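User: Predict structure, ligand manganese (II) ion.
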Amino acid sequence: MKIIHCADLHLDSKMESNLDREKAVERKSELFDTFCRMAEYAKLNEVKVIIIAGDLFDTSKNMQLRVKRRVLSVIRDTPDTDFLYIKGNHDSEDFLEGEDLPENLKLFSREGRSYEYANVLITGKDYKKGMTEKDWSEFCAKLKNDPEKINILVLHEQEGKSFGKEGSVNMSVFKDLNIDYLALGHIHSYKCHKLDKRGVYCYSGCLEGRGFDECGDKGFVLLETEEDQKTGGRLRHSFVPFAKRRIHDLRLKLDGGYSREDIEELISEKIKDIPETDMVKLTFSGEVEEDTDIDIEFLQKKFGEGFYFMKMCDETKLKLSYEDYENDISLKGEFIRLVKGKRMREEDKREIILMGLRALSDREIDIWR
Ligand SMILES: [Mn+2]
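Assistant: Predicted complex:
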């Protein structure tokens, strides 16, 4: 039997933090398309269950009736697959109320609930704010996991050292409960670790990256059960990259003087393996000499055309020792000589000089150097 574990789709996200209105609308429809493609994948590959581990939607305020109804119709059109959906911290409690729900959409509650498919028991619990260690222990004590079966637990929680603080849960509370696979949502990157001798806990990550804090491969986890007479069954899991576009947050650390040609060469090298359908942010950092030519507008236009979206940021600081200017016949030189002639601590003088030079220069200087 095949099962998909996905989470954090945030289907009604506005997508406007980087993109212009037109692209934001397009990207938003891509989020939905990827959800449809996943349903298609389930049909083609005879996936019995799709687990959605919370945050199917972004906020109830953004929630458009249209998006909700379309999601329900995709589920209805995939009748051979059950959609097991727990609510995350973004999903509002009552947004499905009054809707005509498809039979294959299975919901949970804040107290927890289980569904059984052959030898697989899937238990899930909607997100509930402020769960203490005691609450979790009580929840775990009620689990009906059967050691002979494959047991999956679905939650939308932040893994942490302690309980309750920022809504975190220490994963050790789920140890030795015969859990084979703990399907988690909330963290937007794929991550899988050993839970105990028997099981693993796994964040599937989101299906599509939305911003530059959601970089790299995004997709879902495919679970496959194997019949095994001795153990009653085994579960294999693998991450399936599935996003339409990948998001890259790149940095170019500079040190010294660079001509425009040098900069262009460095950019070309940095981006050479990135497909043009991707979204790229490139930040220049480090220290550069004054004659370095980073014309962000020009570079963004030149290289941005090769990608769906590109954004460049210049965070470089001016590499400077003020002694270089001390004897100059210039405003900078005059300023340095003026400050040096004052009666004050040498460190203060240095700080004032660097601050003044920064004001007189068009590039930022690291004054704490
Ligand atoms: Mn969340």
